[in-house]
What we know:
Elements lengths: L5 H13 L1 H15 L4 H5 L8 H7 L5 H12 L14 E4 L10 E4 L1 H21 L6 E4 L7 E2 L5 E3 L1 H6 L2 H10 L2 E2 L3 H4 L4 H14 L4 E8 H24 L9 H8 L6 H13 L6 H5 L5 E5 L8 H8 L4 E3 L2 E3 L2 E5 L12 E3 L5 E8 L15 E2 L3 E2 L8 E7 L7 E13 L2 E9 L13 H16 L5 E9 L6 E8 L6 H14 L3 H8 L7 E5 L3 H11 L18 H9 L1 E6 L6
Amino acid sequence: MTICSSDEIIDEFELITRDAGRVQxxxxxxxxxxxxDAEYLNRFNLxxxxxxxxxxxxxxxxxxxxxxxxxxxxxxxxxxxxxxGKPITSLSVSSGTTQGKPKFLPFNDELLQSTxxxxxxxxxxxxxxxxxxxxxxxxxxxxxxxxxTQGGILATTATTNLYRSWRFKEAMKDIMSQCCSPDEVIxxxxxxxxxxxxxxxxxxxxxxxQFVFSPFxxxxxHAFHTLEExxxxxxxxxxAGVLSKRVTTPSIRQAVSKILRPNPELxxxxxxxxxxxxxxxxxxxxxWPNAKYIYGIMTGSMEPYxxxxxxxxxxxxLMSADYGASxxxxxxxxxxxxxPEEVTYAVLPNIAYFEFIxxxxxxxxxxxxxSSIHYIESEPVGLTEVEVGKIxxxxxxxxxxxxxxxxxxxxxxxxxxxxxxxxxxxxxxSLVLSINIDKNTEKDLQLAVEEAEKLLAEEKLEVVDFTxxxxxxxxxxxxxxxxxxxxxxxxxxxLSSCANSMDLAFVDAGYVGSRKIKTIGALELRVLRKGxxxxxxxxxxxxGGAVSQFKTPRFVTQSNSKVLQILNxxxxxxxxxxxxxx
Length: 582
């Protein structure tokens, strides 16, 4: 790949977004020509037609369960043209943190190329606002276990698929600062050792670090929380030039030892800076003085971590990374100065074919703070047919065998960049909490927790992490919210008030009505031991997941028995709401 300047990349983006409608038609035609002989398309009698009208009339909207049997055949070794014209040789594994069961999704060279394009585009706009030199990036990136399916197909996380690719590495050299850590750290078999070495390598190159990155805000917060615990050991390593015995993996030890030299002056500087920090506020600019920003996905389920991340970041801006999923990419952040809560994503019209299902709120359910709506759906519209201010569900057709695939994401159209829409991510559409007629989503849960957190702030306490459960073990069923706090000093009075606050914060009409007539029981707040969500993450990692892809499940189903066991054995206190009477 040739080296492109930021201006050239931006010019290319401006060109394809000026006539996004035509680019979309060309993109669909290319997808359908490449995959004309795919069994899935032929099942619906598309008969090699490549126009959007034929495509939409023949091919139905689908979700993962509709194509799961096709993907399983690929995993089992069927190398015929099942979903694509060329055989699929690798699969991406989605996080699977809610149901406890990861999903397989096709991954191919075309998805790799679209990733490179997305990253190049956002980099160009980012670099225009915050120019970076030839320094390094402190990247908290982790590979995951690579497994081969029964049919010999490589299956791993999307992040690992990228960072294992030489094409991706070559492309990133043009647009991304070099990672402080060697590959042996990124692909190490033990996450805790890799994290320790990421921090160590970042400190060794502290003056050269231009920005801090991890795919998700959660792993950034986790990294700097770990720094609070191991900073003295890191200083000792740098002072003596000898790697801690906690790092036992030979390949990591060998790679890191090559760059670790005795540096008492640096060790003393780091030690003094850490000692002088007030509750670790502004630790990132203090230790990495040339860092210009912090970058990662910060929307959706990552929003609850922004408060803590801002604490660590001090004056440094937080910048939300691009919008996509294991299924494929959607848009780039071309307005990098916007805070994460307001970030928008400009859709790249040549990386996939996009449709949008209009969602209308029924009369009587137009509640200001509630995303828990059973929307009325209309026929999908094209990329350039969406309207500013309206909300939609995203549908994607990509080069890797997904056709009219419902992502399950609700977005709002905030405006247009040339003729391509800029999207604001609202929430996942899938319900999180529901017992009968109540309908509450992840966003509603987040808002309820944030409301209750205001009571904790008075006692200088904060929620480290949270999840939820619908408990139907007795009638009537009720919501259970699990909290891990940063301290054990919360009073019973405050925690009882928090339970009441969350109960009242769920303003969905079905929930409020059901609580009043007691067909839904009192909300229960269960307080967990410190470190519980660390155990949940370790369980996920033991299944082959990568910490850079880990997202705390905001809702745990009864089928996810292992996570439920971890949560229930760590409950220290339980409080039932009295907001609707006892």
